Amino acid sequence: MRMLIALLAVLAGPAWSCQTALVLAIDVSNSVDEAEYRLQVDGLADALGDPEVIEALVRDEVALLVLQWSGVDRQVVTQDWARMTDMAAVATFAIGARLTPRAFEGSDTAPAEALRFALRQFGAVGDCHRRVIDVSGDGTPNAGSDTRTARAEAAAAGITINAIAIESLGLAISGFYRRELITADGFVLTARGHRDYPAAMRAKLIRELARVIG
């Protein structure tokens, strides 16, 4: 009987402590003014207060990390890894997101370097089944290296890249993210301006976390 139980455990695969480790990478480059920054962090906090999002985060004990990025040497973790083990943990993380000050001012837009910085954060959450980077931004690169190379590095490591493109005119940023930033298993959601960002963030989290059991 013990041998049968052991065999079934092997066939079932590893028992993951958490389903998803999710890096939320927020653009704070020069194109983002203070009001737009507030819309991003408040939008994230509001999305984390949504009952459907809370249920999914707690159900799968999702690990969350927030970083801010802009130019080549401008990336910083503003909220380190935290496990969403219960409603209180989600609420605490949401409050932290809302109260986080802006890390950088007046810098370029270098998403490739943001991706590589995000990739280095996953060493602390090796017990999570899926690893995902969410990039949100309102501009295409004007500094740094090729995002396609950074994307390939993520794909080779089994890490998914999704994005929220914050558009003011047309769909140029959405198109860039789709062609050159997200991985083959990723997706792009478009926010029509920063004021649409909170709804886009909620929709993205629900879609993303549903993919775990979909």
Quick structural overview:
The protein has 214 residues and is of the alpha/beta class. The chain has helices at 2-12, 34-48, 51-59, 87-99, 111-119, 147-156, 172-180, 197-210; strands at residues 18-27, 63-69, 75-83, 128-137, 160-167, 188-192.
Describe the structure.
- The chain is of the alpha/beta class and 214 residues long.
- The protein has a single domain, classed as von Willebrand factor, type A domain (Rossmann fold).
- Helices cover 42% and strands 23% of the residues.
- It is built from eight helices and six strands; from the N terminus they run H-E-H-H-E-E-H-H-E-H-E-H-E-H.
- A six-stranded mixed sheet has the order 3-2-1-4-5-6, with helices on both faces.
- Helix 2 runs parallel beside helix 8 and helix 5 runs parallel beside helix 6.
- The radius of gyration is 17 Å and the shape is globular.
Instruction: State the CATH architecture.
Output: 3-Layer(aba) Sandwich
Pattern of helices and strands: HEHHEEHHEHEHEH
Give the distance, in angstroms, between the N- and C-terminal Cα atoms. Answer: 33 Å
Report the strand count: 6
Q: Tell me what portion of residues adopts beta-strand conformation.
A: 15-25%
Q: Major sheet: order of its strands?
A: 3-2-1-4-5-6
Helical content band: 40-55%
Q: How many structural domains are formed by the residues?
A: 1
CATH superfamily: von Willebrand factor, type A domain
